[in-house]
Design brief:
By secondary structure, the chain is mostly helical. It contains four helices and no strands. The chain has one domain.
Length: 84
């Protein structure tokens, strides 16, 4: 029960964060989330796929939105800053 409450709180916090940063589409929301998670999931491909899919399932009901969020999330994790 405790983990459900924590998950619900985390989902609510993410929703507020994404609303505040102006994410206009599920892809952009996923990309922003992926950028936040890049440090912890950078080298673990399975972890990236599982994490992004799990968050997409929690955030969106429509399949197209879930798929866009997952793509954005994975791109956000893997998009490294360019070197000067």
């Amino acid at each position: 029960m405790r983990s459900r409450t924590a998950a619900a709180s985390a989902a609510a916090a993410l929703t507020l964060l994404l609303a505040g940063c102006g994410a206009d589409s599920p892809y952009e929301a996923g990309y922003a989330h992926g950028q936040e998670r890049r440090g912890t999931l950078g080298g673990d491909l399975f972890g990236q796929i599982f994490h992004c899919a799990t968050w997409a399932e929690e955030q969106y009901e429509e399949k197209a939105d879930r798929n866009a969020f997952k793509r954005g999330c994975q791109h956000g994790i893997n998009d490294l800053p360019s070197r000067p």
